[in-house]
Automatic annotation (TrEMBL):
Keywords: FAD, Flavoprotein, Oxidoreductase, Tricarboxylic acid cycle. One of its GO terms (molecular function) is (S)-2-hydroxyglutarate dehydrogenase activity. Pathway: Carbohydrate metabolism; tricarboxylic acid cycle; oxaloacetate from (S)-malate (quinone route): step 1/1. InterPro entries: FAD/NAD-bd_sf, MQO. The keyword Flavoprotein applies. This is Probable malate:quinone oxidoreductase. It catalyses: (S)-malate + a quinone = a quinol + oxaloacetate.
């Protein structure tokens, strides 16, 4: 017997219970408190997929230590534009979080963000020359003025003792940024969603969205089922839909039929970490130490030795070790990748794949590593590490954007891509790092594209939430000192 489908209505439907949906929901709760907001998440808890504490590195991505954001140019100089932009974006996120803490809408800041210096460390003469040039280039920018550079081993040992203990005579250099952070995006997500819920938003976990259909009046109908009770099916009619479902965003946007998603594909990359939870070892390291990526490795696979905080407990993490699984979510289906192939994206995906054979080779080599080989990689950053002290854990699944390109036919794109329908009634986010750290500016971009009619009425509240809204800090030293000093104080960052 077929059970009747319940139909509901809402102003805003958020699909996915991660940091992106939580950020957008929290912003709209502040901007339009009378709007009805509904959030649905396929798992039984909020913030457990890509936003989960061990599913990402937790780096407050501000380009302080991530070398791939500042590439060496053909003329031998280092490009800083992307790094400055990412740092500006993270400062925007910090401002929003600080305001929400000050207004009592988030809990204690140390529950989700902690000061952890960011270090870039390189080995061999060529990489040392690059890092020195990078530091020289960054010194010109206000947002990087506190960064220090050193080749002195005693200094490096003070910054990151474990990295220098037992190290050989190779060339080594590092930069040190004291204002770096570790962010528990899972906890931050849960706090943002709790704020939404306390203000009337409906939060429904264990709910799978199977389809999205546009109605003649411009609204959207989402077909949902209860993952624990297949007979509990509902249709949710929404004026606006945001698909913030991580790797699950691509298939849902494809089902929506919007022309803007045509030509897009996804390339899933899995990962593994080595984790050390021994307090006596974790207490000897307080930094996120990033190095240079292997040839062919995606930016998300840059090796790093990190301090991580979860529920006040300090641990160490090293990795990630890349891998490949065809599922788009950590708890997804092995058929996700083949099911995402369409006539409109087959050629771009093929061209992008052929152009990135180094990546394929890299992932295959990573998959074939045993624990001993993974420990050898760890020992490049922590020479005296004992493999018995470390356990292997699975990181989150990342789906890199593949898209059409006029010249190359198709390209593999690192970073995030905001997809919005022409009428602004639906939007979704594809891609990965540095997404979580830049969630606030990405959602501000979405608001501007999808709700342009509200720009004037929202301006005042947005400026309260984000004091430097619409301005750049790197070009205004006085403003930068004021904003960064205030938000740093609220969030407990130096």
């Amino acid at each position: 017997m077929k059970h009747a489908t319940t139909t509901e209505s809402t102003d805003v439907l958020l699909v996915g219970g991660g940091i992106m949906s939580a950020t957008l929901g929290a912003l709209l709760t502040e901007l339009e408190p009378t709007w009805k907001i509904t959030l649905v998440e396929r798992l039984d808890e909020i913030g457990k997929e890509s936003s989960g504490v061990w599913n990402n590195a937790g780096t407050g991505h501000s380009a302080l230590c991530e070398l791939n954001y500042a590439p060496m140019k053909a003329d031998g100089t280092v490009g800083t534009a992307k790094a400055v932009t990412i740092n500006e974006q993270f400062q925007t996120s910090r401002q929003f979080w600080a305001t929400m803490v000050e207004e009592g809408k988030l809990g204690q800041a140390s529950d989700f963000i902690n000061p952890v210096p960011h270090i870039s460390m390189v080995f061999n003469d060529d990489h040392v020359r690059y890092l020195k040039a990078r530091h020289e280039a960054f010194k010109q920018h206000k947002l990087f003025e506190r960064m220090e550079y050193s080749e002195d081993r005693d200094q490096l040992a003070q910054w990151a003792p474990l990295t220098m203990r037992g190290r050989g005579s190779e060339s080594v250099a590092a930069t040190f940024a004291p204002e770096g952070t570790d962010v528990n995006f899972g906890e931050l997500t849960r706090q943002l969603v709790a704020h939404m819920s306390a203000n009337g938003a409906e939060v429904r976990t264990g709910t799978q969205v199977s389809n999205l259909n546009k109605e003649s009046d411009g609204t959207w109908t989402a077909c949902t089922t209860n993952r624990l009770d297949s007979e509990d099916s509902r249709e949710i009619r929404a004026k606006f839909v945001f698909v913030g479902a991580g790797g699950g965003a691509l298939p849902l946007l494809q089902k929506s039929g919007i022309p803007e998603i045509k030509g897009f594909g996804g390339f899933p990359v899995s990962g593994l970490w080595l984790r050390n939870t021994k307090p006596e070892i974790a207490e000897q390291h307080n930094a996120k130490v990033y190095g240079q990526a292997s040839v062919g490795a995606p930016p998300m696979s840059v090796p790093h030795l990190d301090t991580r905080f979860e529920n006040g407990e300090k641990s160490l993490l090293f990795g990630p070790y890349g891998g490949f699984k065809p599922n788009f979510l950590k708890q997804g289906s092995l058929f996700d990748l083949p099911r995402s192939v369409r006539t409109d994206n087959l050629y771009p995906m093929t061209r992008a794949g052929l152009a990135n054979l180094d990546l394929v080779k890299y992932l295959i080599s990573e998959l074939m590593k045993n624990k001993e080989q993974r420990v050898e990689a760890l020992q490049e950053y922590y020479p005296t590490a004992d493999g018995d002290d470390w356990e292997l854990v699975h990181a989150g699944q990342r789906v890199q954007v593949m898209r059409k390109d006029k010249e190359k036919g198709g390209v593999l794109q690192f970073g995030t891509e905001l997809i919005t329908a022409e009428d602004g009634s639906i939007a979704g986010l594809l891609g990965a790092s540095p997404g979580a750290s830049t969630a606030v500016p990405i959602m501000l971009d979405l608001l501007a594209k999808c709700f342009p009619q509200h720009k004037g009425t929202w301006q005042s509240r947005l400026t309260e939430l984000i004091p430097a809204y619409g301005r750049t800090l790197d070009d205004d030293p006085r403003l930068a000192d004021e904003i960064m000093g205030h938000t740093g104080g609220v969030l407990g960052i130096k």
